[in-house]
């Protein structure tokens, strides 16, 4: 089962309402995406913690082999 890029973006925006979010479908199959998230909520946190926050927002969609989202290349940072 595939997931739409706009659904991923909506889930991330729900967790980080003021974030700048960009989603790219890497393989054109709706299962392999790259996401860039720039959020003030990341300030003072290391990259591992930032990624954990995003993964938490996508928890149900990344639930092992039954999840809609198979792979996510993630880039996070704080606003400049």
| CATH level-two architecture | 2-Layer Sandwich
Number of domains in the coordinates? 1
Sheet with most strands: 3 strands, mixed
- Going by CATH, what is the homologous superfamily? BolA-like
**Overall spatial form:** globular
For the termini, the CA-CA separation is: 37 Å
Helix and strand content put the structural class at: alpha+beta
Number of separate strands: 3
| Total of DSSP H or I helical runs spanning 4+ residues | 2
Cα-atom Rg, whole angstroms?
12 Å
CATH topology: GMP Synthetase, Chain A, domain 3
Word description of this protein:
With 80 residues, the protein is α+β, with helices and mostly antiparallel strands. It has a single domain (5-77), classed as GMP Synthetase, Chain A, domain 3. 28% of the residues lie in helices and 25% in strands. It has a 3-stranded mixed β-sheet with strand order 1-2-3. Helix 2 (47-57) links the parallel strand 2 and strand 3 (71-77). The longest helix has 11 residues, at 5-15. The termini are far apart.
Question: TL;DR?
Answer:
By secondary structure, this protein is α+β, with helices and mostly antiparallel strands. Helices cover 28% and strands 25% of the residues.
